[in-house]
Amino acid sequence: MQDQARIIDGKAAAAALRAEIGLEIAAIKSAGGSVPGLHVVLVGDDPASRVYVASKERLAAEIGMNSVAHRLPAETSEAELLAKIEALNADDSVDGILVQLPLPKHINSGAIIDAIDPAKDVDGLHPINAGRLAGGKEGLVPCTPLGCMLLLRQVLPTLAGLEAVVIGRSELVGRPVAQLLLQADCTVTIAHSRTRDLASVVRRADIVVAAVGRPHFVRADWIKPGATVIDVGINRLPDGKLTGDVDFAQALNVAGAITPVPGGVGPMTIACLLRNTLTAFRARRG
Ligand code: GUN
């Protein structure tokens, strides 16, 4: 049997990225400038969203950003939320705006995302930023896909020519990560729920990105020996434990490198949000 796969440590990579951004903010501060401002908006009290928003708020503050969380009641109307977004758009001290998803059902998420100033859209979800990404132009890129790419580059210095299979076609992960892999000159396949013979599609891949949202969906015998596996899934099992989309224990015996859950892609998402906020700050304020 081959050696066990290298486990890609997303927690360490995220801490290193945050430290790097923290140093840049300290330099901005010591030069007498105002620091980047990240504003996260949470509507309602979904327990998972509350935890995510608290982490974003804390980690942004920890590296010296002006970190503000706006917690609005579940009954907030779409018009009220739009007014909040307009106020943040108009406030020059706000560099990044993130509206935590999912929103309550009575609010049209698309209308809210469309209202965010694309220059402050640190989630990279505004159609202008999605279009820029699809066109291979500079813009703000969704945080989880960006995190996947940074982790991939830790183990694969050259991505050009590699076969990449992305499983999942969501706006938040599947589509944008496929665009980034294409920009890196991979040969990209996007597989989804209607893909025929998924196992044999995945077996071609030098890089597998699993973003399905189903525990242990990707089986070890689908993975090409030596492939790099990025597991974006965060699934809660009945016993309360978190697990990814990949059968990690078995995949360890086949893959060349693999991200764990937790401790893989997850921590990179917030670190990339902070990076996007710094990027937006630099683009807006020079
Ligand atoms: N909910 C789960 N993931 C995300 C994300 O990346 N951005 C936002 N805004 N909401 C989320």
UniProtKB/TrEMBL annotation:
Residues the record lists as binding NADP(+): G168, R169, S170, I234
Known pathway: One-carbon metabolism; tetrahydrofolate interconversion
Phosphoprotein as UniProt keyword: no
Catalytically driven reaction(s): (6R)-5,10-methenyltetrahydrofolate + H2O = (6R)-10-formyltetrahydrofolate + H(+); (6R)-5,10-methylene-5,6,7,8-tetrahydrofolate + NADP(+) = (6R)-5,10-methenyltetrahydrofolate + NADPH
Pfam families, per the entry: THF_DHG_CYH (PF00763), THF_DHG_CYH_C (PF02882)
GO molecular function, one term: methenyltetrahydrofolate cyclohydrolase activity
Chain's role: Catalyzes the oxidation of 5,10-methylenetetrahydrofolate to 5,10-methenyltetrahydrofolate and then the hydrolysis of 5,10-methenyltetrahydrofolate to 10-formyltetrahydrofolate.
HAMAP family xrefs: THF_DHG_CYH (MF_01576)
PROSITE patterns: THF_DHG_CYH_1 (PS00766), THF_DHG_CYH_2 (PS00767)
Cited InterPro entries: Aminoacid_DH-like_N_sf (IPR046346), NAD(P)-bd_dom_sf (IPR036291), THF_DH/CycHdrlase (IPR000672), THF_DH/CycHdrlase_cat_dom (IPR020630), THF_DH/CycHdrlase_CS (IPR020867), THF_DH/CycHdrlase_NAD-bd_dom (IPR020631)
EC number: 1.5.1.5, 3.5.4.9
Keyword NADP found: yes
Gene3D superfamilies in UniProt: Leucine Dehydrogenase, chain A, domain 1 (3.40.50.10860), NAD(P)-binding Rossmann-like Domain (3.40.50.720)
Protein name as it appears in the record: Bifunctional protein FolD
Sequence ranges assigned to domain Tetrahydrofolate dehydrogenase/cyclohydrolase catalytic in this UniProt record: 8-123
Subunit structure: Homodimer.
Family the UniProt entry places it in: Belongs to the tetrahydrofolate dehydrogenase/cyclohydrolase family.
Tetrahydrofolate dehydrogenase/cyclohydrolase NAD(P)-binding domain mapped to chain residues: 142-283
Keywords of this entry: Amino-acid biosynthesis, Histidine biosynthesis, Hydrolase, Methionine biosynthesis, Multifunctional enzyme, NADP, One-carbon metabolism, Oxidoreductase, Purine biosynthesis
